[in-house]
Amino acid sequence: MSPRKNPPKKALAPPGSPAPESPVARGARRPRIKRTVAILSRKRSLYSTRRLVAAVRERGHRPLVLDTLRCCLLLAQGKPRMTYRGVEMRGVDVVVPRIGASITAYGLAVVNHFEMMGVPVLNPATSISRSRDKLRALQFLARSGLDIPRTVMAHDRSNVRRLVEEVGGLPVIIKLIKGTQGVGVMIAHTLPEVQTILDTFWDLGQEIVLQEFVAESEGRDVRALVVGDRVVGAMRRKAKKGEFRSNIHRGGEGQAIELPPAYMQAAVQAARIIGLEVAGVDMLEGHAGPRLMEINSSPGFEGLEGATGRDIAGEIIDHALAYAEARAGGARASEG
Ligand SMILES: Nc1ncnc2c1ncn2[C@@H]1O[C@H](COP(=O)(O)OP(=O)(O)O)[C@@H](O)[C@H]1O
Ligand SMILES: [Mg+2]
Predict the structure, then answer these.
(1) pLDDT per residue over 137-149, tens digit each?
(2) Which domain-ending residue is among 213, 228, 244?
């Protein structure tokens, strides 16, 4: 089904419309009830989007890729509605949002609107928004007793030395609250360096946090992908030479690992606390176990599928379908 090329007249997903003729669809399982799974994504050519579409087809359901910025939200007295390229949005059973950092605000509005329309969304808007703010996420994680690197947020230029002492001294990590893919994460080795970086960001109106540098992690970290209440894949990422950030986008390399139980539990607990059904949880390997760094609500999984050989897309879609089913069951029960 491709609303891009040939939008049907009445609704995007009329009940009983035929399956697309693709080799995957021909070999697909035949489910009892055919579901429409919408994937919110800026581009259908992105690896994770393509994989999710294939996973929906393989299960005999109907994938629908929606460009987030083309969803038009209609509000008036009564029921909220949505159109997509002028066509009324109907018949979507579950939404899997893939919201890039550059369109967080609009993406959250679209996710919220689907929720208002009673469509189950994996992940909910409030949880995506919590995860996008590194400080907000750490507040939730730390309060629940998970171990995080010592972190301070401040806006006081007068005593930077004290801020540095609070997080255990030099070197320190300085992070933009809303950075991603390693951009906006810095390391400072001297006090004048810290002062210059802080002054620059504050002058630019950007909020930052100072964080303890977890030296024993040695440019490595662990990425665990949580789906529902399980870790479905994990890898250790190693920074390239001369770099402390292990992000794949910064040249880091991933290697599949069997996660120790403590890491497994911490990752699942973190996802539960933030309220994410699908989450990429980043942990540093501290002397005493996992130290949570951040949690991603639209984790890419090209690196993880490559490293582990696991069908991560399939895990996400199976969970999305079960989640929708449980919601529909709940709605039927409360109606009856
Ligand atoms: N406190 C820290 N100690 C040591 N390394 C860190 C610390 N914080 C971040 N890093 C390194 O920098 C990378 C990026 O940091 P992260 O907070 O995950 O930001 P981003 O959202 O940009 O990925 C991490 O994957 C890790 O390798
Ligand atoms: Mg990260």
Answers:
(1) 999 999 999 999 9
(2) 213
